[in-house]
Amino acid sequence: MHIVKASHLVPVAPVPIGRLEINHDPYASKIMVLNRKSGELVFATKPSGANTTHLLPLTYTTSAQLLVLMLDNTQVYNAAALDHVQAEIVDLYTLSAQSNT
Questions:
Q1: Residues 86, 89, 93, 94, CA torsion sign
Q2: Alpha-carbon distance 55 to 86, whole Å?
Q3: Measured between alpha carbons, how far is 63 from 87 in angstroms, rounded to an integer?
Q4: CA geometry: angle 94, 52, 11, nearest 5 deg
Q5: From the centroid of its chain, how far is CA 94?
Q6: Residue 78: left (phi > 0), alpha (psi -120 to 50), or beta?
Q7: Which of 16, 70, 88, 99 is disulfide-compatible with 80, CB 3.0–4.6 A?
Q8: How far is CA 1 from the centre of its chain?
Q9: What does the pLDDT profile of the chain (101 residues) look like in tens digits?
Q10: Which pTM value belongs to this model?
Q11: 72: buried, middle or exposed (CB in 10 Å: 19+, 13-18, 0-12)?
């Protein structure tokens, strides 16, 4: 019997997926990403460092339909919002950006 690990399987064609990379204030206590059309919470996270990366479905790569909120739980800074945000298309295997050519 042969044992095959997933790391040995190399896809023949790129597998596209959406990636949202947020460069935020290091004082941000919470990041919330909402679907601006439905108001649905797409994801929320407590950031560590100055960058947050999250993989998303391809539907968020075709139009700018995300709203990013950065919150500060210390009540020192105001909330910051980024409207009309769009995820970029990357290859799921390599996480490198896809070219549109």
A1: negative
A2: 12
A3: 8
A4: 15
A5: 15
A6: beta
A7: 70
A8: 40
A9: 666 666 666 667 888 899 999 998 888 889 999 999 999 999 999 988 888 999 999 999 999 999 999 998 888 888 899 999 999 999 888 878 866 54
A10: 0.78
A11: middle
